[in-house]
Amino acid sequence: MPAPVGRLKHASAVRIVEIKRLLKRNSLRLLVFLFILTACLPQVEVSDPNQEADLIQIPATPGEGGLPTPLPTREPYAPGTLVDYTAQTGDTLPALAARFNTTVREILQANPFIPPDATTMPPGMPMKIPIYYRPLWGSPFQILPDPLFINGPAQIGFDVKEFVNQQPGWFKDYSFYIGKRERRGGEIIETIATEYSISPRLLLAVLEYQTGALSQPLPSGDVDLYPLGYRDQFTKGLARQLLWAANTLNNGYYGWRTGQMETIRHVDGRLENPDPWQNAASVALHYYYAQMMPQEAYDYAVSGEGLLRVYTQLFGDPWAGVEPHIPGSLTQPEMSFPFPAGKVWAFTGGPHTGWGEGEPLAALDFAPPSVVGACLISEQPAVAVADGVIARRGDALVVLDLDGDGDERTGWTVFYLHLANDSLPPVGRRLSKGDPIGLPSCEGGRATGTHVHIARKYNGEWIPAGGALPFNLEGWVAANGDQPYQGTLSRAGRTVRACECSDRTSQVQSQP
């Protein structure tokens, strides 16, 4: 039995003709992402995921001889074969079961030391997993570690504006109106990285790889069109392209993280099932480049000569000394409902996007019954779900930092959206659980009625509202529905369902 592949080196012994034959055979793919967008969305400029993109040729960066080093492949396994696997940061049993095409029950039987109620697996823990082979597996070559994908502890101390200003390229002088004001170069990246909680270094590497924005004195094409290569009316202009890129990368990352995405459909129609040993950051990059690159350019981008080479040139070896950002057995601290004690509010939105469109399904919505269906500023405030400090304030939003250090890239944070701007507390204010944090409204993006939207992050990573580590508010535990915004809260045998209608079955009372 071959050992599992972690960060594989280039398999130079594999013949190029064999790789081409395998890639040609893997010519059909299946898309499993469909995002339902309804009541509550931050106002971000991204593309319609159902609109077909134009296929364009993006220049590849060849290795020696004009071809990238051939990527490694895996053998087909007999059904139920026990394979070795080393837990990666953020792994959960449901996601592993989906990736290896098995069940949580079978994984627990093969690893009796894992408790059935386990949340996240301890990084580095050896496991045995029964595998059921799927065809069309992609490469197991890992591009970037997960802790360097998100805007977490690894990004502390990196001044993106200063870094961009020191580069010779044209991007430092590029400006765009974003976040309600004109911003230049590194400030654009900083804004997008903060909003989507995605690494600013990764966004810069993506930008440099595809446009040369940090190294070339002049752009090679029109930056007001489609410089990253994805073409539709909603992504025209470099800043909108970057917003689309951040959203798409998050869709790939959290789709793989949760086990919801099993197949990538390429823009040219090919199908790819990511290698079960892959990590979420690498799959996110596979998913992103599959949206606009034909096969040859895609193969370069996900090889060692592609994005990884550019990232390393800019920031050094990403795999050197990287520390896991999600520990094993992660648990949520105690949290109350985001409305006053003893009050009855409506559970109007089950697990849905925390920010942007699609994944991650990190947020829940609540509304005072008196304003359901209307866009009036509520007289009842939203409140702090736990003790903390206001780490960030934006357009109708605040971030409550529970570890109190004022940095939303570390520890547990709770993101609030759709609060009236005039009611927001200042950055740095310390709140106790139950203190007012703002008045629910329709401000801050698209909303069909007054409500408050809350989502959790840990060390910069959005934590899904349902799943292996669900939202727990006073013992009410969230669960996913069949579609985003659907879902339930359950406690002690009672279940309420999410509904904008604010009927009796959707109402819940906070503890006095």
UniProtKB/TrEMBL annotation:
Matches recorded under Pfam families: LysM
InterPro entries in alphabetical order: Dup_hybrid_motif, LysM, LysM_dom_sf
Domain of life, source organism: Bacteria
Domain named LysM: residues: 83-129
SMART domains: LysM
PROSITE patterns assigned: LYSM
Gene3D superfamilies, sorted: Glucose Permease (Domain IIA), LysM domain
Protein name listed in UniProt: LysM peptidoglycan-binding domain-containing protein
